Amino acid sequence: MSEQLTCPTCQRTQITTANCPNCETDLAILHLLANLSPVETGWDYQLRLIILSIISSFISGLVAAKFFL
Fold first, then answer.
1. Could you please report the per-residue DSSP string of 39-63?
2. Which residues 6+ apart lie within 8 Å of 34 measured at CB?
3. Using CA atoms, how far apart are residues 19 and 25, in angstroms rounded to an integer?
4. Which of 37, 42, 49, 58 has its CA 20 to 30 A from that of 22?
5. Could you give the CA distance from residue 22 to residue 44 in angstroms, rounded to a whole number?
6. CB atoms within 10 A of CB 6
7. Is 5 helix (H, G, I), strand (E, B) or coil?
8. Cα–Cα distance for residue pair 18/3, rounded to 1 Å
């Protein structure tokens, strides 16, 4: 855990451990969130979402037509 955080409870700064040394607040989840990789964005990601939406709409239409016609 190399990310330095500020405790949201007591505002102590530069905490690198899983618990705040001042108030013992569990900061493990904040360390996990701070170390997440960035969300994928860009044209490739948007294109994949558009293609997935078109395919799922087409499949939903086929299923609906089979049941309602």
1. PP-SHHHHHHHHHHHHHHHHHHHHH
2. 3, 5
3. 5
4. 37
5. 46
6. 14
7. strand
8. 10
